Prior knowledge:
alpha+beta, two-stranded antiparallel sheet, single chain
Amino acid sequence: MHDANALEHFFDEGLIEKVIRPIKSGKEASVHLCRANPRTTGEELVALKLYHPLDRRDFRDDAIYHDGEWIKPRRVRVALEKKTRFGREVQGGIWVNREWEMLRLLFDAGAPVPRPIERTDEAVLMSYVGDLDAAGPQLHSYRPDDRDEAEALFDQTMKAVEHFLYRNAIHGDLSPFNILVWEGELTVIDFPQAVDARKNKHAEALLGRDVKRMCDHFERWGVHRPAERIAQDLWTAWMFADLVPEELRGLTM
Length: 253
């Protein structure tokens, strides 16, 4: 059951007209398909991601994602470290804000992510992947028709990773569960754990983990790629400012 208070803002602002049905529910949030107001959103259907109440969220291993973020008030830093109630409230706000800012950054850069529309401290409204009958399936449950399609999807995945890194972003939790497939195109979702490659000392390791997970997944479809070498090449190119995604080549000259 969705929280009426969390939905109120989106109704009051004339952004959504009806919550149609839940799409999925995860550790941190639930996602709902909504009938949108096209005049205010430019969309017929939208996805509303509602973060669970703090006592239902799982913040394990969050320290590696906060590395490099300077939080000035000492009492806030202490609360985060001790995971007090106040610390969890701050932490929850950081995660929602990071998702929103990453979506804005990457969508504006032309990366394959949902279009962010509006946010509150508890929710993010974004474009929807799918149609009225069905949402775009997660990659983990999608079955390619053949190896050629699997290779094409793998290439799209690595191009997305490259595009993110070009904007100094690493997803940090990339897996077949947060990539959607619709009409042959991939859309990457779920960015609360994304990190800035310039600031986070774990960035290279997180990039390597993202790439390995995806290589491991596509191996079941006969697509064998050297995960360690791909990640190393991406990181080296980024370090030497020699990373330009294929779709942007010629635009940056």
